[in-house]
Amino acid sequence: MAPHSQKVAFAGLGVMGYGMAAHLVKSGFVVTGFDVHQPALERFVREGDGASAAKTPKEAARDVEFLICMVANSVQATPLLFDDEIGAVRGLKENASIVMCSTVASAYIDELQCRLKEEGRPDLRLIDSPVSGGAARAADGSLSIFASGSKDHLDNAHAILACMSEKLYRIPGGLGGGSKAKLIHQIFAGINIAMASEAMGLAAVAGLDTQDVFEKLKASKASSWMFEKRVPHMLDPNLPRYSAMTIIAKDVLYLSAITNSWGPEDDCVLVRLYLPTSHGDLVATQAGTSSSSKSSSLNHNVTWETIRDIMMAVHVAATTEAMSFCEYLDIDEALMYDIVSHAAGTSRMFEDSFLRMKRKRWGVGELEDAKKIMERLAKAVDDVYPLRYPLFLGGAALQEFWRQGRTEQMQHSGA
Asked: What are 148's strand-pairing partners?
């Protein structure tokens, strides 16, 4: 492929960053990589003639038009950019662009812009550009990218952003808009990973054939993109890691996984939080087993339909909460639907209920089957109770349905 005239520094050659940087090289860009992990640099320089490595961020940034930051978080990004001796900002030439692809808070983007001015570098073009899609899509240039910033800066970076993405969104509202959109998407994605763990953990603890349950749920309205992609790794722990736990560590459940030293493992490891300590592989060992005798001996009424009803309700509750937050952040709802429905955060219930819930400002009351969903969820929670199984998401969803139902009753009664 013909080389591009634009030179790129790429900082952060982790699970996703490596694939993104390698794809840029394969697409003809000249890329200088930087990472604190030396083996990643050694591997990267073997990607082709356009790939080279630098010992410091400052060295990597010298004479490039673009610095792409794909480190884990803002804690890593700040010294990468601003270290007094080796920070990338010290090496960037005038009017170069900083493309922040790391998942950071929108407030941090504002802090970066102020810091650049304080450092005497207001000339640098800052672009807020978080990504989604996982390692495989990073490697083939088919990520979803949520880019925000000034039109001129986005136009200037278009070739690079388009090279790395299948869906390139320009989020209105200036800097920080991309990070806000990514935050909403990650709420969906994070809940869906946790729901996959809660569902399959329940199937295993209930003594069901987990492979059979997976196939049935995957074909039902309860399924999600995350469920279909993550559960195979629960069923077969020997599959290659899909996405590290640290990447999606967004809430209390996930922080619990981090404190158990599971950070480098595949994020499907979250299912262990639902399983007995001595049987962390129960989802895998229950795959393909006959479950009739085990289920009857456990004295419960849990079936795959029970789990389906919990999942469907959780996806509806996630939609009402996440989209209410989206409205609060003043993000265009139609744009957010397009983002979620084409990315890892989507679920069949999200796609099915979005337009109907939008008509009532994200309340579940607009769904003609809302009462049925809640009744099935309540029954499912009751059926699970004898197992003393922790329905973190199922219980929270039931509370949200009850809360909205009480609110509607009060409004109708004039209270």
From this structure: 128
pLDDT at 268 over 80: no
pLDDT digits (tens, 9 = 90+) for 122-174: 999 999 999 988 888 999 999 999 999 999 999 999 999 999 999 999 999 99
Q: Exposed/middle/buried for 328, CB within 10 Å: 0-12, 13-18, 19+? A: exposed
With vertex at residue 271, the alpha carbon angle to CA 269 and CA 272, rounded to the nearest 5 degrees, is: 80
Interaxial angle between packed helices 392-413 and 370-384, expressed in degrees from 0 to 180 and rounded to the nearest 10: 140
Hunting for tokens 């967004």 — which residue is that? 250
As a whole number of Å, the end-to-end CA separation of the chain is 69
Q: Which helix (H) or strand (E) holds 312?
A: helix 304-328
Task: Give residues with Cβ within 8 angstroms of 247, minimum separation 6.
Answer: 15, 16, 72, 267
Question: Which three-class secondary structure state does DSSP give residue 31?
Answer: strand
DSSP code of 224?
Answer: B
Q: Are 27 and 3 in contact (CB under 8 A)?
A: no
Q: Would the pLDDT of 258 be above 50? A: no
> Would you tell me how many other CB atoms lie within 10 Å of the CB of residue 36?
13
Query: How far is the C-alpha of 262 from the C-alpha of 256, rounded, in Å?
Result: 9
- Residue 207, Ramachandran bin (φ over 0: left; ψ between -120 and 50: alpha; else beta): left
> 2-20 burial, b if ≥16 CB within 10 A, otherwise e?
eebebbbbbbbbbbbbbbb
Query: pTM here?
Result: 0.85
Strands (E), 76-173: 97-100, 125-128, 131-132, 143-147, 165-170
- H/E stretch holding 11 reads strand 7-11
CA nearest neighbour of 216 among 200, 201, 205, 198: 200
Q: How far is CA 367 from CA 17, 341, 363, 372, in A?
A: 41, 19, 8, 10
Place of tokens 């009664």: 413
Q: Residue 1 has what DSSP assignment?
A: -
Burial of 168 (0-12, 13-18, 19+ CB in 10 A): middle
The answer for residues whose C-beta is within 8 angstroms of residue 309's C-beta and 6 or more apart is: 222, 373, 376, 377, 379, 380
Res 256: pLDDT:
47
Q: How many CB atoms lie within 10 A of CB 324?
A: 14
